[in-house]
Design a protein that fits this description.
The chain has three domains: 236 residues, Glutamine Phosphoribosylpyrophosphate, subunit 1, domain 1, CATH 3.60.20; 197 residues, Rossmann fold, CATH 3.40.50; 141 residues, Glucose-6-phosphate isomerase like protein, domain 1 (Rossmann fold). The chain contains 18 helices and 26 strands. The strands form five sheets. Strands 3-2-4-1-10-9-11-14 form an eight-stranded antiparallel beta sheet, with helices on one face. A six-stranded antiparallel beta sheet has the order 5-6-7-8-12-13, covered by helices on one side. A hairpin with a 6-residue loop joins strand 7 and strand 8. Helix 13 runs antiparallel to helix 14, helix 15 crosses helix 18 and helix 16 packs parallel to helix 18. The longest helix has 23 residues. The chain is globular, with a radius of gyration of 25 Å. It starts with a strand and ends in a 17-residue tail after the last helix. 55% of the residues are buried. It binds 6-O-phosphono-alpha-D-glucopyranose. 6-O-phosphono-alpha-D-glucopyranose binds next to helix 9.
């Protein structure tokens, strides 16, 4: 969702900004633009649609010379996607250009004030008020003006600002939207995330809320709202460049699917020492865990689906009631939470606005918050009491795969850790789980080897209009993710249902040839699933079953099957999601969809 890149240095800014924006494409956008200072004035070029259109307009950067600039990919919130509403936005005198990620909640009030002072507006955006405010308050000092403007803004923002009076200065400000500073040699950057600058520098400062940074080519000063200079930590990022390149794969999504054995292994091994689950720097004391009345899981999208699986796992192993809430619902429903509740937030990006707000709400009510997060130092990590980092590495495709799998692995680890502390698990069961966890990556590898078989199935079904996913217990929770994967990248309508619930209405949609994907891995519920499959079969459905090698008899009720390795029931989620990801990927491929950047979607959803 909205990507920002800014540059100040001695190289040509435009190609660097375009290449940074390219790396941020995954966030989702519908228009793009740059503002470059050419030694004389600010030049603005914008385009609706793909970044390539902007790049063509700029002749890949050759058309616009200058050593200071800002660029933006916009995911429309206020005003339709158009060149007029695309960022950067400029002030009435043309002195200031601004790029913004977030939402200014009091922009109408600010706009009225500026209109009353004779300042006219040209766009429908909330962002334009920021550019106009800069001009309105400008006193010759960019930092002072920035602090004054910041005091007026309500809502969320990551901002990059340049001024034609200050050819060597780039100003950045942040609240509730991500922004990093990349420290280079005789050059400095701002960006929405590390991927945009990683080929130029690995030294990063993360701006915190209500901080303002003034960058020149040789210096970066970060200030609080009272203009006190802050001493900020510089982190060195060890991601390699290959992790943000496709490395020969046609799509990031396929590359990330294929990386799963490694990242699941990395995540699991980082937390197991001598056969014990071991969490460094986490303080969940035995007494605290034992007196928990409830666990509440908050998350969005696929991370929420991981939460749905976690509910089954925690309740089975820990025997503590678990509520899973979509974060955007949790935050406004007056949740019943106190200090006897552990809130677990799950997020890949660590920047999802609703999850962040849910964390703040839970903390306000006295709950301890533990987060499972992929991005180190992200806003969600910073806002939580305890953090468990997944080791998925950077995920670029909008549709998550490897981050989901590592979140799931972390859920198993956390369940074992807590069960052990609560004395809820005997030694042999514990060892059995730990052993099985260590085997999971190689079982995932085995499934990946069968991807051509899954590709053939996708070829058969890519033109279908409706798909239903059914399952019971954890299989149902996984089917939520299988259904989401399919619809988000292939635009095929799909729904996930608890297998026993379908007959209470939705089965009326099953007709001759409707594809039903049946997940039948829960060994104790296998017979029940067979009955549910028969129910849809007898109404004309074509059934694709996903089950484990033990259940060859699935042939009797299915038209097609995908077999996955056997594992402990609660861990089957990690295996059965893999064919669902591959199936969705190839269906989208055969349909010719934009797999890594599906329409209307953003990877990092930093607005509510
Ligand atoms: C977006 C992404 C999903 C992701 C969700 C939550 O919708 O496309 O893949 O699951 O946001 O994001 P988070 O970064 O909090 O996991």
């Amino acid at each position: 969702m909205c990507g920002i890149v800014g540059y100040v240095g001695y190289d040509q800014a435009t190609p660097l900004i375009l290449s940074g924006l390219k790396k941020l494409e995954y966030r989702g956008y519908d228009s793009a633009g740059v503002a470059i200072y050419d030694g004389n004035k600010l030049n603005l070029v914008k385009a609706k649609g793909r970044l390539q259109i902007l790049s063509d307009k700029l002749d890949a950067g050759a058309q616009l010379k200058g050593h200071l600039g800002i660029g933006h990919t916009r995911w429309a919130t206020h005003g339709e996607p158009s060149e007029r509403n695309a960022h950067p936005h400029v002030s009435y005198s043309g002195k200031f250009a601004v790029v913004h990620n977030g939402i200014i909640e009091n922009y109408i009030k600010l706009k009225e004030k500026l209109l009353n002072n004779g300042i006219n507006f040209y766009s429908e955006t909330d962002t334009e008020v920021i550019a106009q405010l800069f001009d309105y308050y400008y006193n010759g000092d960019l930092l002072d003006t920035g602090l004054k403007v910041m005091a007026e803004l309500e809502g969320s923002y990551a901002l990059g600002i340049i001024c034609d009076d200050k050819p060597g200065e780039l100003l950045a400000m942040k609240k509730d939207s991500p922004l990093i500073i990349g420290l280079g040699k005789n050059e400095n950057f701002i960006a929405s995330d590390i991927t945009a600058v990683i080929n130029r520098t690995r030294d990063i400062i993360r701006l915190d809320d209500n901080e303002v940074a003034l960058l020149t080519s040789s210096n970066v000063g970060v200030y609080d709202k009272d203009k006190r200079l802050l001493s900020k930590q510089v982190s060195c990022i060890d991601w390699d460049i290959a992790s943000v390149e496709k490395s020969g794969y046609e799509h990031f999504m396929l590359k990330e699917i294929m990386e799963q054995p490694k990242v699941i292994r990395d995540t699991i091994k980082s937390k197991i020492e001598n056969g014990e689950v071991f969490f460094e720097n986490i303080s969940l004391e035995k007494e605290y865990i034992k007196r928990l009345s409830k666990i509440c899981i908050v998350a969005c999208g696929s991370a929420y689906h991981v939460g749905c699986i976690a509910k089954y796992i925690f309740e089975k192993i820990l025997r503590i009631p678990v509520e899973v809430e979509v974060a955007s619902e949790f935050r406004y429903k007056e949740p019943i939470i106190d200090d006897s509740v552990l809130t677990i937030a799950i997020s890949q990006s660590g920047e999802t606005a609703d999850t962040l707000a849910a964390i703040r709400e839970a903390k306000k009510l006295g709950s301890k918050v533990l987060s499972i997060v992929n991005v180190i130092g992200s806003s969600i990590a910073a806002a939580s009491d305890e953090v468990l980092y997944t080791l998925a590495g950077p995920e670029v495709a909008v549709a998550t795969t490897k981050a989901y799998s590592t979140q799931l692995a972390m859920v198993y680890l956390l369940a074992l850790y807590m069960a052990n502390k609560m004395d809820k698990i005997d030694r042999s069961e514990y060892n059995n789980y730990v052993n099985e966890l260590l085997y999971l990556p190689s079982k995932v590898e085995d499934i990946l080897k069968c991807r051509d078989e899954i590709k053939s199935l996708a070829r058969k079904f890519y033109s279908c209009k409706n798909v239903f996913f059914i399952g019971r217990n954890i299989d149902y929770a996984v089917s939520l993710e299988g259904s989401l994967k399919l619809k988000e990248i292939s635009y095929i309508h799909s729904e996930a249902y608890p297998a026993g619930e379908l007959k209470h209405g939705t089965i009326s949609l099953i007709e001759e040839g409707t594809l039903v994907v049946a997940l039948a891995n829960n060994n104790s519920l296998f017979e029940k699933m067979i009955s549910n499959i028969k129910e849809v079969k007898s109404r004309g459905a074509t059934v694709l079953s996903i089950t484990n090698e033990k259940h060859q008899e699935i042939d009797e009720v299915s038209d097609y099957k995908i077999l996955i390795p056997d594992t402990i029931d609660i861990m089957s989620a990690s295996l059965e999601v893999i064919p669902l990801q591959i199936f969705a990927y190839y269906i989208a491929l055969f349909k010719g969809c934009d797999i890594d950047k599906p329409r209307n979607l953003a990877k990092s959803v930093t607005v509510e």
